Amino acid sequence: MNNKWKKIIGTEGLYQHPNGKYYLRRNYPKRSFQSLRTENLKEAKERIRNFKDSHYGNLTKPNRRFITFGDVAENYQSGPLDRVGVKLKTKDNIINSLRHLKKMHSVWRKPLLEVKTKDLRTCIDGIPNLSNASKNYVVYAVNKVVEHATDLGVISNDSNTKVRSFSTEPRKLNLPLDADFKKVVQVLMYPDLKSRKKRCLPNDWELKSRNQLMSEMNVSVSTLKRRIAEQRRPHRLKPRPEASFTFLFLCFTGMRLGEAVKIKWSNIKSDHIVVEGTKTTAAHRILPIWGQLRQLLNNIKEYRGSVSEDGFVIKRKRIDKALRIACKKVGVEYLRHHDLRHYFATKAIQSGVDIPTVSKWLGHADGGALAMKVYTNLMTDHLIEQSKKLKFVGGLMDAT
């Protein structure tokens, strides 16, 4: 035995390398040291205990060939993931990520020794309706399962490398036009409003004559009248406004979802909202109550009848599904919760509010540097329009 290894008394097979990391002394498939990937003694003992408590430590070589990726993943969820100190949010992300992967039988039910890194990455890339950022959560979970398989001795340290993460370039955001924005709000307010793929009224139907609409839509006068009546009288349907309240509150305040769901009526003052930020010190801020935001707050109070100081302003905490359905019905690109924050910032800057002020409203701590980088790319038309204000006289800018 090389003297550079320090044997830890009281735990069989536990050694410490001079670099500070702990190792497990293994005898199968050959005498070697297996890294426990930690410099924390308590954590190292826990990992050895997990290994000894599992049936993997005593498996013979032939049996190892039949252990699937799913076997190790389920063992990891019921073992180390529950016992080792992992943040609740991280634990939920890992469980949800492995749930996606469980549907991919080509990997989940395949013997782990036959699963290659390339197979795992291809499988993750093939999961539908996931952004690259969400796929990276799955990559993280997969790499944790592979590390656990190494701890259990199912695979050797050098038999499988980590799955590479996916590039996460900033998502190109196409914000809806004002007309489409109103339609999204209407669908959220009246989710039972049917969408018709054919013979729908055009966006500018109010500017056209009845004969023009009949010709363009190729419908009879009675059908046209029904379409117009449906468009003008959506109130006949039962309104369910909580989703639209959440949508508009995020659009009119630019808050992060985590901030918005914590706003109580006690945070609403006469002319401003006290935002208790969730991210940085600068996130604690004062947000002025402007015209449409004030009207929205009044509408919420009127709909609910009465509100208490300890009550939350928005009751519908998440609107992912409702927003996805509404965007699909209207025919615009799917909007996420965070996109509504971009919508607020873009509209504020397009309305003439200076970027440092918008940055303070958003809770940024950089004085507007991030806002300059992110939001000016969305306002090319606005910037060109502003350039028309420039005037030069005799080679000098005429101050106006």
The topology string of helices and strands comes to EEEEHHHHHHHHHHHHHEEHHHHHHEE
Helix content: 40-55%
Structural category is: alpha+beta
For the largest beta-sheet, the strand count, sense and barrel status come to: 4 strands, antiparallel
Count of distinct strands: 8
Largest beta sheet: what is the strand line-up? 1-2-3-4
- Apparent shape: elongated
Total count of domains: 3
Strand content: 5-15%
Instruction: State the helix count.
Output: 19
Distance between the termini: 85 Å
Characterize the structure shown.
The chain folds into 3 domains: 147 residues, no CATH class; 43 residues; 142 residues, Intergrase catalytic core (hpI Integrase, Chain A), CATH 1.10.443.10. The protein has 400 residues and is α+β, with helices and mostly antiparallel strands. A hairpin with a 5-residue loop joins β2 and β3. The mean pLDDT is 79.
